[in-house]
Every structure is written in structure tokens, then in C-alpha cells.
# Entry
Amino acid sequence: MNVLCFDIETIPDTEYGRRLYGLGDLDDESVAKVMRFKQLQARQTDFLPLPQHRVIVISAVLRDGDGLHIFSLGQEQGTEREIVQRFFDGIERKSPGLVSWNGSGFDLPVLHYRALKHGVTAARYWETGDSDRDFRYNNYLGRFHWRHIDLMDVLSGYQIGGRASLEHTALLLGLPGKLGMSGAEVFPRWLEGRQDEIERYCETDALNTYLIYLRFELMRGSLDRERYKAEVERVRDKLGRAGEPHWREFLEAWQADGGQD
# Structure
């Protein structure tokens, strides 16, 4: 397997908001309130347009020939430009299959805009067959290609009415889902300097996505039942050896629900 399941967390790009609305010296919290109010007036939702999101964390589960790795690219790894570049550098090196939950609708377009803003290069990601024929009919950009699998999109049959949340799908499979936090809490915790909590939250979303992906691979016959069980056990072993509290909590919640069979 060579697959990268990923998730991002964002906050309002208040620097952009100041320029967009001429907000001068207002603090970040006040700027974000104005941005959301303007969006609510225009679209009856305060969810900001994708170019107005700033990436603060990218979390991933990488399964490759070297094993299973769970990691985050966040404040400790550098600026937004640096973490976005590192994400695309990983694709450049390994050309993994990408897996996401609503990645086609949110995560990847946001990363596109942030890469554009910062001048990030990502030649492998944007390859569509001009330099590598293998990408002509199977690339990261084609909605119905398999080099990027948006599980929410695929499982819904590409129908808006069939979509489910990551939380509800994880709970359907006996997975922990979200543990003590939601996306609405990201910006307030960022303002309080609680970046580590945001990274832990993002990592658990990435792991829920990876475990749903394993079940999907079993369903479509890419994994037989023995290989599937072995991959799930690999995750359990990884969490059992991890010292971080959020992984102990994840494993305990998973076991309490009986896990996936």
C-alpha cells in the first residue's frame, strides 16, 4: 500500500479580510466576525468562501512500504507556505494515492488557493499525462479517477443527497469519531494558543478517514478479509505503543464500541 489519508484545519484569513473590507487595525477575532457576517448577508451561511481560509494544520496517515505513520504539519513545522509546500513535496516524492473526506469539495481547493497565494510548486500533483502517461487517465484532479479518493463523494454515489458526515460514518463503523472537539471550536482555540489541541483533533479525523478507507478497500475487494484484519491490527498496535493521550483515548473509545470486525 502507498496511500496518504489527510485532513486540514483552517481559520479565517484575517489578513485578507482586512484588505477585502478595509478593516484597518481591528484584531483577528473582530475581523473574523465581520468576514462571517458579510458572508451571512450574501449567502445565508457564515461558512467562508474557500479563498478566505488559512491553513493551520495538515494531518495525515501514511501507509507505505516503511510502515504506518501518523503526523501533522503545523505551527512547529513552519509558516503556512512551508507546511503547504511540505505536503506537496511528499506527493512529489512518493506519488501516493490520496484519500480524504470531502477533500474534493474543501481540503484540496483550499490547498490550491493557498499554494497559489504562496507560490508553492507541486508539479506531480498537477500532472495530467503530459510528462507521465500513467497520469493521463488516473490523476489527482479527475473527480472519477482513483489517484485521489474522496470517500464522502464516492460512498454517496456522487449525489449531494447521499452525503454523510465523517462523524456519522465513523460511528456507523464503531469508530470513535470526534473526541471532545468540533470544527467550530478550531478558531477560538487558535486564538487561545491551543494549537496542540487542534493538531490532535485533526489527526483523529485523519485516522477515522483511514480506517473507513480500509473498510472501503475490503468492500470493493482490494483487500481480502485477512489482509484487512492485519491492517486494522497494525493501527491498534501503533496506537497501543503511542504515548500521546489522544491516542489512548481513541483506542479506548474504539475498544469500548467493539471496533470493526
Q: What stands out?
A: The domain at 3-256 is CATH 3.30.420.10 (Nucleotidyltransferase; domain 5). DSSP finds ten helices and five strands in the chain. The longest strand covers residues 53-64. The beta strands are 3-12, 53-64, 67-73, 97-100, 148-150.
